[in-house]
Amino acid sequence: MNLAGKTLFMSGGSRGIGLTIALRAARDGANIVIATKTANPAPRFEGTVHTAAVAVEAAGGKALALVVDIRDEERVKGRGCPGR
Q1: Do residues 79 and 50 touch, judged by C-beta distance below 8 A?
Q2: SS3 track for 23-69
Q3: Could you tell me if 62 and 23 are in contact, meaning their C-beta atoms sit under 8 angstroms apart?
Q4: Helix or strand or coil: residue 10?
Q5: Per-residue confidence at 75, pLDDT binned at 50, 70, 90?
Q6: Whole-angstrom distance between the N-terminal and C-terminal Cα of the chain?
């Protein structure tokens, strides 16, 4: 499957297997939306949503870093489409 020009929404894509998947898709030219609960670094893991976005773009994709807890419906609605 060719991912060039496709957009992927990655929940938790800033580290670990999520980041690995995002980077693989970026090498195929995909756009990656990385949604994470926080922009702060974790004590046990390297990287943040912002370093992940830089890595995605270095791999050939386009990135959008979002700090939003998708488990919280009100926060998701607050960042949704205009008029919601």
Answers
A1: no
A2: HHHHHCCCEEEEEECCCCCCCCCCCCHHHHHHHHHHCCCEEEEEECC
A3: no
A4: strand
A5: low
A6: 35
What letter represents residue 50's amino acid?
A: H
User: Angle 49-58/16-27 helices, nearest 10 degrees?
Assistant: 30
Residues 6+ positions from 75 with CB-CB distance below 8 Å: 68, 69
Tokens of 10: 């990655």
Q: What one-letter code names the amino acid at 9?
A: F
**The two three-digit tokens of residue 63, written as one number:** 């990135």
pLDDT, position 82: 46
